[in-house]
Design brief:
The protein has about 750 residues and is α+β, with helices and mostly antiparallel strands. It is built from 12 helices and 30 strands.
Length: about 750
């Protein structure tokens, strides 16, 4: 275990690494030996070595875009154009990523970044700036953004796809034939998830066919001939119906014929397990519905879901959301009227700026706005149903000890505010650990100190927005165990009222390397991270640890790191789990909200459960307990309270909009929905199941179906309560709405 760390400016003479998302830069430059290979076998040496190129732009550049790209308000993702065929006519449709290409560090641009012989090539670290210099740099950054002219940026992401998922044939346009859907009530539900069974009986129509019109399996083997998607395989209703009509046979064989659950390929196949996250979620959002409740699904690559940090998620989700809206556009054109769309995405991120400006939040906001305006232009006399709703979960990270913050005091920028973090990295962790530190973009005098377990504090030098640094043992510059980067949000508060931030991202190698990897891992134990900066009174320095545990259906790869602060109070006065912040700890429960749930276009749903009246009333001998406020009870319905894991927002974050059942009770966890196989039922809990119930509520509204019982319960008006569950509550949904068949 190293006693002292050294920080070397990253060798990037051509600024290649700077063009990548920082998570992708870490993954491609330093983690290829262990990232995705410790638990995933390769079918081909090129597996997982691909990249997305995404065109982005600034909100101020909108006026320079030609139609059909110009939109009112902000936009960030340039919408490229491709052709689609509808009943013999060619129409334009939107794409969001520019290209996907192989990226082998040994053959492509990263070869320029290889260290010189002996591994000792280094860039000179810039001298530390004094206070005046740091303030001048911050002012220069502001001036640079203000003077920015219309331009397009490119951002590259790692695309962990298998070679078999990339098509070898030419891409051709998708065709859709009108089905005669009823104009007044036809509704589309889109689901982006993992392990979705498109042949499941919950998605059948009255004739025994499927209500799934299009299903994009992003990591399926690409067809050998023409394809309608840039990677993976798209299943159509005709293909699924043909398999359903192919006579009696085990469902596993039907799935295999559709290219799902192929155990001749390496990796995880959650659709073949007893419970799959995506099938359960889709059943809550659109199971057992009328024939005119149509379903569009996007199954993310298993490698994307397995990386719970979200390091690879953004471009795949962006492509999936664009695909759903693209297919909804086709269906609307063919049917002759706008069809409302409800998209459910039951994933969450721990990190992110939490100010609505995460790349994925901006992209979703842009796509939703573009689709609505496109429908309004196409159907000017039928604008009433040109609507898109995106539903996201609030997250389950309240008790994860993954968020910390400190607020600038009365002295303001005359002295530095410090956030000191005891970061516990666990032994036996086979995946990277990520810590994000966010501060105002004009924070000055930034200092970062790192102390390894049992070691001495070392100040990080040479770090700036154009230059990352690598962490290595002092005695061996080639033994890279981490990377630190600095980036800042672009744009101006004057454009949208959102204060921009900058981020320091610390990436650490696993504490337990695979046996075949000779490189050292990062030491486990208590790391101390201290960030000091001059910020104004009331401004914050915030920290989030990215999620690092195993998702449903996947074998355990990572072990979750956390902030191990002795001042953090884990238990309440009765010995139960404390769900509200108290004491002096910088580690906070409030602020644990899903990092992609702060955008403008989404509806955010938190998980609730049945409230225990005895705890709600408290005990006189102990005084008033710190809350279990619940929703005002209605006759015949038990009052509700936040599930103990339900993440909480903190000002100025947006709060959850609504809540829905995440657990039936403390002793009956979860909500019943579809199992992976037709006819099966399984419970699953969390905000992942709360979100699709609200998505179904929205879909039922478009369908013209009256919800059972009261539509939405009113909420009590406590700040801490609303921060976790929003202002309105969806009652527990009985019968087929909850997937109970």
């Amino acid at each position: 275990m190293p006693d002292t760390l050294s920080f070397t400016p990253e060798d990037d003479p051509e600024s290649v690494t700077a063009m990548f998302d920082p998570y992708s830069a870490w993954s491609l430059r330093y983690a290829l030996e262990f990232d995705l290979t410790a638990t995933e076998d390769r079918d081909d040496p090129q597996d997982f070595r691909y990249m997305f190129t995404v065109d982005t732009m600034q909100a101020g550049d909108i006026e320079d875009l030609p139609e059909p790209f110009r939109m009112e308000g902000d936009t960030d993702v340039v919408l490229l154009t491709r052709s689609v065929n509808i009943d013999g006519n060619t129409e334009s449709a939107q794409g969001t990523f520019q290209s996907i290409a192989p990226f082998d560090p040994e053959k492509n641009n990263f070869s320029l970044l290889a260290p010189a012989e002996g591994g000792k090539r280094q860039l000179a670290a810039p001298p530390d700036m004094d206070e005046a210099g740091e303030l001048a740099e911050a002012e220069a950054e502001e001036a640079e953004d203000e003077a920015r002219t219309a331009s397009r940026d490119t951002l590259r992401f790692r695309a962990p796809l298998r070679k078999v998922s990339l098509p070898t044939g030419t891409q051709w346009v998708m065709e859709y034939t009108a089905q005669g859907l009823p104009e007044a009530t036809a509704t589309i539900v889109g689901v982006i998830d993992d392990g979705i069974n498109p042949a499941h009986s919950a998605f059948h129509d009255a004739s025994g066919g499927t209500r799934v019109d299009f299903a994009w399996v992003q990591d399926a083997a690409a067809p050998t001939g023409p394809t309608t998607v840039p990677f993976g395989r798209e299943l159509t209703k005709a293909e699924i119906d043909a398999e359903l009509a192919a006579g009696p046979k085990p469902e596993v064989d039907r799935l295999a014929a559709l290219g799902l659950g192929d155990f001749t390929r390496a990796g995880v196949h959650t659709v073949a397990q007893r419970l799959s996250h995506g099938t359960h979620v889709a059943s809550l959002a659109a199971g057992d519905g009328p024939d005119h409740l149509r379903l569009l699904t996007v199954q993310l690559p298993a490698a994307v879901t397995m990386a719970t940090s979200g390091a690879f998620m953004s471009p795949f989700v962006l492509a999936g959301a664009a695909h759903i809206l693209d297919r909804a556009w086709l269906m609307s054109l063919a049917e002759g009227f706008p069809i409302p769309v409800v998209i459910n995405f039951s994933y969450s991120l721990s990190g992110g700026p939490h100010n609505g400006l995460h790349f994925l939040e901006r992209a979703i906001d842009t796509l939703v706005q573009a689709h609505i305006e496109r429908l309004a232009r196409q159907f000017p006399t039928k604008p009433g149903r040109a609507e898109v709703e995106v539903v996201l979960p609030s997250g389950n990270r309240l008790l994860a000890r993954g968020h910390a913050e400190v607020t600038g005091g009365a002295a303001g920028r005359t002295s530095k505010t410090a956030l000191t973090l005891p970061w516990r990295v666990q032994p036996g962790d086979e995946s990277s650990n990520f810590l994000e530190l966010w501060m105002p973009r004009n924070a000055a005098g930034v200092e970062l100190w790192l102390t390894p377990p049992g070691g001495t504090p070392t100040r990080v030098t040479g770090l700036n927005a154009a230059q990352a640094v690598v962490i290595h043992e002092a005695a061996d510059p080639t033994a890279v165990i981490g990377r630190i980067s600095l980036d800042r949000q672009k744009g101006q508060k004057a454009l949208d009222g959102i204060a921009r931030k900058k981020r320091v991202l610390i990436a650490l190698a696993p504490s337990c390397m695979p046996a075949a990897v000779a490189r050292p891992g990062a030491p486990s134990g208590l790391w101390t991270v201290e960030l000091r900066a001059r910020i104004s009174e009331g401004e914050r320095i915030e920290a989030w640890i990215q999620r690092d545990d195993a998702p449903l259906g996947y074998r355990r790869q990572g072990r979750q790191s956390y902030f191990d602060d002795p001042a953090y109070q884990r238990w309440d006065a009765m010995g139960g789990v404390a769900v509200y912040d108290s004491g002096s700890s910088v580690v906070k429960r409030e602020g644990s909200l899903n990092g992609i749930a702060t955008g403008r276009a989404s509806k955010v749903v938190g998980p609730s459960t049945t409230r225990d009246e005895r705890l709600a009333k408290g005990f006189a001998a102990l005084g008033d307990l710190p809350g279990a406020p619940g929703y005002a009870p209605l006759a015949g319905h038990p009052p509700r309270a936040a599930a103990p894991y339900a993440a909480a927002a903190t000002a100025p974050m947006r709060k959850p909009d609504h809540s829905a059942e995440g657990d039936r009770s403390a002793v009956c966890p979860g909500v019943i929905g579809a199992g992976a196989a037709s006819g099966s039922r399984m419970p699953m809990n969390g905000s992942s199941v709360a979100a699709p119930q609200y998505a179904r509520y929205l879909a039922n509204t478009y369908l013209g179906l009256a919800p059972p019982g009261p539509a939405l319960w009113p909420a009590a008006n406590e700040t801490q309560h609303v921060a976790r569950l929003g202002a309105r509550a969806l009652p527990p949904q009985p019968g087929s709405v909850a997937g109970q068949r």
